[in-house]
Every structure is written in structure tokens, then in C-alpha cells.
């Protein structure tokens, strides 16, 4: 069963000249997939991620997450559903500056009502796995960009969401930090079977994906499994 099922999805931004950012798009993503959504700037990939995350309102169509139609939820129901089921990683990290790395990792769990000892245990576990366990009590301003993005990924994973949406997560990272981050995300994908969906134009991310979906003018132009890509390369 698909963890994410998108059916005839449309998103139009109204204005003097309406812009159709997503155009009758249908797509299914299975549990545990490591998928890159790619395409030129303005193709609709970030809009698609925002719709999947419930951060933007659908014009028409359906988004089903484990069978639940997100487009049928009220604003409060959507907020609760998003909190329990979706992890987010942004290119700008979006860490809370007054909180320590450990507190940032535990923030979503705190919103979910998880007690502090459980939050701290999970945060320590993830930061240790990500090689920055010694930064638990350090605030974001004292961390490098790569370290901040690791904290952001740990936060996304902390509550064990159904899937993670990552919008250009490597955009502000150097090559070494990018490779380290992708290694960690691939490891967590395999160890915890977390479904990860990237919106990216970074070839380094595309090369590590198990599936590459190319979006053009708001539509799926190409959908390739990694085995197909390897056959072409060979």
C-alpha cells in the first residue's frame, strides 16, 4: 500500500495572471522510498512538497496519507495530523535560536505531549548517531551549517513520522557536509524505514535517490527507479 497517494492534484495561484503550479498530477510513493522530486526552477516541485505537508491549500484533487485524505481535514485537524505524521527539513534549517540542539530535536515531541526524559533520551540517541552528541546543550548560533542541518534532520526524525519532506536540504552546505548528511539520511532510511521525499536540483542528492520523479510545468514528466537509471548509465 502506498504511504502517499496523490490523485489529480491541482494548485493554482490566483492573481492578475493565474499561475497553475501543479497541473492534474497523480503520484504514489511507497513506504520506505528515498525519492527525489526534481525539475527546473518554477516547475512546481516545492509547491508539491508544500501541498504534501499541508503547508499550502489544494485547489482540487486528493492527497491520501496512509489512506487519510488530507484535503478533507479541517484546519485544526490538519495541524494535528501534520504534527503526528510528517517531518520537515528545510534548506534554512529553521532551528529555534533560543533552544539548545537537544531541545530543538525534542521540540516536535514536546508539542505532542511527550515527557522530557523521553524527549531527551530520543534526542541524545539521534545526535549521537549523527556524530554531534557533544552538541546537545549548544545553541544553533554556535554550530556550523552542517551541524545545524544535522540537528534539523534529527528533529524531523525524532517523533518517528510516517515520512519526511526535505526541501533543498543541501542548498546551503559544502560538498563534505552534503555527503555526510546524505550518508546519515540514507542510513536512517534503511535502519528506521523512514520514507523520505526530497525536492532538489542538487545532483549529489539525485545520485543517492532510489527513485527520481521529474516535474515539468506542474506535471510528472518522468518517473525512474534507481535500477532504470543504472541501466542507462551502464
From TrEMBL:
GO molecular function: ATP binding; ATP hydrolysis activity; transmembrane transporter activity
KW Transport (keyword) present: yes
Keywords: ATP-binding, Nucleotide-binding, Transport
Key word GTP-binding present: no
Domain ABC transporter residue range list: 4-232
CDD domains listed in its UniProt record: ABC_MJ0796_LolCDE_FtsE
Record-linked PROSITE patterns: ABC_TRANSPORTER_1, ABC_TRANSPORTER_2
Family matches, as Gene3D superfamilies: P-loop containing nucleotide triphosphate hydrolases
Domain of life of the organism encoding this protein: Bacteria
GO CC terms in record: membrane protein complex; plasma membrane
Family: Belongs to the ABC transporter superfamily. Macrolide exporter (TC 3.A.1.122) family.
Name this protein carries in UniProt: ABC transport system ATP-binding protein
Organism: Aureibacter tunicatorum
Amino acid at each position: 500500500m502506498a504511504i502517499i497517494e496523490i490523485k489529480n492534484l491541482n494548485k493554482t495561484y490566483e492573481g492578475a495572471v493565474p499561475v497553475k503550479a501543479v497541473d492534474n498530477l497523480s503520484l504514489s510513493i511507497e513506504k520506505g522510498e528515498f525519492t527525489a522530486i526534481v525539475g527546473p526552477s518554477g516547475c512546481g516541485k516545492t509547491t508539491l512538497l508544500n501541498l504534501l505537508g499541508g503547508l499550502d491549500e489544494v485547489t482540487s484533487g486528493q492527497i491520501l496519507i496512509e489512506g487519510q485524505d488530507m484535503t478533507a481535514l479541517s484546519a485544526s485537524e490538519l495541524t494535528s495530523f501534520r504534527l503526528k505524521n510528517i517531518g520537515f527539513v528545510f534548506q534554512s534549517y529553521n532551528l529555534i535560536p533560543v533552544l539548545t540542539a537537544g531541545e530543538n530535536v525534542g521540540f516536535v515531541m514536546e508539542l505532542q505531549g511527550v515527557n522530557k526524559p523521553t524527549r531527551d533520551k530520543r534526542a541524545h540517541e539521534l545526535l549521537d548517531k549523527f556524530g554531534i552528541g557533544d552538541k546537545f546543550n549548544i545553541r544553533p548560533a554556535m554550530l556550523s551549517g552542517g551541524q545545524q542541518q544535522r540537528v534539523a534532520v534529527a528533529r524531523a526524525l525524532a517523533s518517528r513520522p510516517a515520512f519526511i519532506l526535505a526541501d533543498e536540504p543541501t542548498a546551503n552546505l559544502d560538498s563534505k557536509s552534503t555527503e555526510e548528511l546524505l550518508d546519515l539520511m540514507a542510513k536512517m532510511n534503511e535502519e528506521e524505514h523512514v520514507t523520505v521525499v526530497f525536492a532538489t536540483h542538487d545532483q549529489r542528492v539525485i545520485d543517492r535517490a532510489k527513485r527520481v520523479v521529474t516535474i515539468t510545468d506542474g506535471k510528472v514528466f518522468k518517473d525512474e527507479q534507481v535500477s532504470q537509471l543504472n541501466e542507462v548509465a551502464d
